[in-house]
Amino acid sequence: MERMWIIKKKDLSEKEKRYRMLLWSLLACAVSLVVCVSYLACWKKVPGRIHIRAGQQEQIDFGIPASGNLHGREAESIPVSLDQPVTFFANEIDSYEMDVKLFGVVPLKKVDVHVIEDDSIIPAGIPIGIYVKTEGVLVVGTGEFTGYDGRRYAPSEQILCSGDYILCINGTDVTGKKMFMSKLREAGSGEQIFTIKRNGNVFDVKIEAVEDQAGAAKIGIWVRDNAQGVGTLTYVDKDGGFGALGHGINDMDTSTLMDLGRGTLYHTDIIGIRRGEKGHPGELTGVIDYTRENVLGLIERNTDQGIFGECGQELLQEVTSEPLKIGLRQEVHPGAAQIMCCIDDQGARLYDVEILAINNEVSHKNREIVLKITDEELLHETGGIVQGMSGAPIIQDGRLIGAVTHVMVQDSTRGYGIFIENMLEH
């Protein structure tokens, strides 16, 4: 009996060990989860980019147990504690970098700090017609075709890909789709040299052109050389420059940012509205007359933060709003705001919105502000945010803080915006 009792005691001890190991494992997982969630929460509180005004003190409350070192162009390094409000001050326009560490030990994030001018800009909110030409021609896709001998050919397969730009054929510059087709016909069948641009790199490739059944030389690609549409002008600055859209112009097939050869703004009139519904974004319908008399400005840059260029005299006369100071990221807060846009022939007007959330991460280049349309008139007319509103200025507390960029497809009353400070970098 004593021996039997000892064996049972041993079995119970093994069970206790396994039970304790399970408890310790669960505790370790719970602690790890809490640490990860806390780390992520702190990471989200710190913006990847901060702007401050030259000559003014800017106080930012990070409210996290972290510290950092602020580096300038010189070798100096300034220690910064982020567990209490931090006051930044710089007299001149410059750029800095701050390395942030949680508890002063665990690397958290690198923050770019930019000192900018405290300028006023004019919110616009007027519709614009947009026409842009690509640099060279854009390769939309590759495919097969039937050659002169009845066989199937795909000369560009594995050589060109969607998103490439063809800049030259046999050393001759290509300025558009029509010219590209003409030069290819002139070159005829056989090996041709194409200068292409891919991800910013320019190089030459050789492709064997083949005659199709009609006798025309082809290399088996689809190309595009322009894009057009309707958007909203965001602002005009003191020098006559403009910013619009709040996002770049992407090719509709490749979804890549189009490399701009040249672009033009045109006068447009809104003649109709297709209301937004769940799963189906609405749209402003505009009439654009692509004539020289209707040119409002020249587009010089197409970026992820919008399109930018120079206004013509007529455009400067159309923008009649009063200049506003800009509102920086740290001044934007959830709550009441307004957007300025035009949905009829009555000109740009202000409509009520509510800012729901702020996204501090740099990777969300034009989805940093989450907003909801609350204006009953705008909801009745458009159903919320519709295509064509991209670029509509967002105003809060009497300051221009950003621009509308996207609509949420499943809820047209909600959408996203970009901080105006990010547009002004361009």
List its traits.
alpha+beta, 426 residues, six-stranded antiparallel β-barrel, six-stranded antiparallel beta barrel
Describe this entry's structure for a reader:
By secondary structure, the chain is an alpha+beta fold. It contains five helices and 30 strands. It has helices at 2-45, 177-187, 313-318, 376-382, 420-424, and strands spanning 49-53, 58-60, 66-71, 77-81, 86-88, 95-102, 106-116, 120-123, 127-142, 145-146, 152-153, 165-169, 172-173, 190-198, 201-211, 217-218, 221-236, 241-244, 260-274, 282-288, 295-303, 306-311, 324-325, 335-341, 349-358, 369-373, 386-387, 393-396, 399-408, 411-419. It has a six-stranded antiparallel beta barrel with strand order 9-17-18-22-21-19. It has a six-stranded antiparallel beta barrel with strand order 24-25-26-30-29-28. A hairpin with a 2-residue loop joins β21 (295-303) and β22. The longest helix has 44 residues, at 2-45. The mean pLDDT is 88.
